[in-house]
Structures are given as C-alpha cells and as structure tokens.
Amino acid sequence: MIGRRIRTAGTLIAAALWLATANPADAQVGAFIDSLFGHKEEPAPQPEAAPAAPAPAKKPAPKAKEASKESKPAKSGKGGDKADHKAPEPKVAAVGAPTAIVTGDSADPATLLAQANAYFNGINTLTGSFMQIGADGRRIGGKLTLAKPGRLRFDYDQPSPLEVVADGTSVAVRDRKLNTQDLYFITQTPLKFLLREKIDLARDLTVTDVANDPGGVRISLEDRATLGGTSKIQLFFDADVKTLSQWRITDPQGYLTTVTLSNLQKGKSVDGSLFFINYGRAEDKAMQQQIQQTQP
C-alpha cells in the first residue's frame, strides 16, 4: 500500500536541505518538484471529484502600437521616469491576442504561436528522454511519457527512487524506496497546459515574448495560477517549430530548472496503467493488485 502525505512549505524545505547533503540526485528531483509545485501549503486533492481549473481573470487585450520614436510606454498606474530605459521597445504581454506582441524579429509572432499550438495539438502520445539541470548545475536524467489529455509521467534514473505521475486529476510524487506518495492538483503546476487536449498558448497563459533565436524559436510565458505564485516558462523549438527541445521554469522564488528533451516519439502506443494513482480506495487497491500481477 502506498502511503499518502500532504507536503507543506516546512516539509519541502526541510526535505530539500536533507537531500542536499544525503543524495545529490534526490536533491535535484526535489528542486524540480519545488519548481513545479512551489512552497505554499495546500490541501491534497480528493479522489472523489476532479479539481476545477481557476478561472483566468478577464482583461482587455493590449493594443499593438505602431513603432515610432514618439511612441509612449504603456500606462502602469504610476508616472514612472523611463529616461534611463535604453532597451528597444518592450515586448507587450498578450492574453488571448498573440497579434499584440511586439518583437524586433522579422518573424510574425502570431504565426509562430500558431505553429507551436499546432505542434502540441498534433500530439496524442509522446515518449522520450529528458535531462534535468537544476539551478546549481547538477544534472539528472530520466524517461518522459505523455498521453493526452491529462496524463504525464517522469521516471528518474537511478539512484533516485522518485517518479512523478499525473492521471488527469492529480499529480503524485512517489518515493519507491519509502513507498510513499505526495498528491497535488494538476492545476497547481505550470506544465498543466501541456496536458490539455486542445492547447492555445495565448489563451491558457500570458505570452510575454516570441522570438527567433539563433538556435530556433523561443516562446516566453507566465502562469500566475501556480502554487506559490507566478511561474515563468520558456519553451524552445527548432527553427520550423516541429520539435520541442527544451523548457525552462523559473519558480515563484526565482529558481531556474531546465529540462532538455531528446529521442522524442509521437504517436507511440502507451500503457495506460503507467498513469495509475492509488488514492487508497478499495477499487484503487484492487486495480493496483491487478496491475502488479500483469507486470513481469
């Protein structure tokens, strides 16, 4: 039987401190989990009902401005002095209106966003390898399995005993060595948009930048509904926006975690039992026994 725990800010920080001295691989997984879930105490999800995603605040889409030397900065509510701001015209955040993004690149941001949406919406299943790089530079690899809608799994390489599983309602962080799991709502994680059946980046998140970097396309986003505050997300694609190569998450505390993807395969058959979470109910225990019996 898998134990069930509720993680609080204190236990997360204490665990991170202990892991940092005990096992670098586990410490890195702990840092990644913190980047996903933050450090704010929240109740564990209940298995009886799926949590509802928080309704995004409705704001009018910012209007695109014509580039000129006389253009005035957008109002912020206070009359700040912008004389020392020598950077090019700032990117305009867009909520639901990607055409409002201003970029110095020649590529059309709306087209790049549409290509990214098409990439994600063309995925039914996705498998591959990942390499996670923490804020301190430590690395740990593993296997990624995704099945839309709602299901995701990270299996970390040894010596880490941890695995992260999303079943469409909740996210379970399991410790195979201790035989425990911690539960979170999917809506508390900044990667929840990747699990939606239909993805629209400008609708689901706040788009802050779309740019053509030398190595490919970079899309910068903000998610203000994650546990602990606002998370900043950067997605990196190849030049044709055909492959997602990397994402970077800066958590509400400012810590950066980078995940680089490789050997990705779309449309591969995936075993649905990989995403099973035991909530402790009788039917869950019976299902877990059935799964264990079918495993080699």
TrEMBL record:
Residues 40-92 are annotated as: Disordered. Keywords: Signal. Residues 63-89 have a biased composition (Basic and acidic residues). Coiled coil: none annotated. The keyword NADP does not apply. Residues 1-27 form the signal peptide. Residues 44-59 have a biased composition (Pro residues). It comes from the Bacteria. Pfam families: LolA. This is Outer membrane lipoprotein carrier protein LolA.
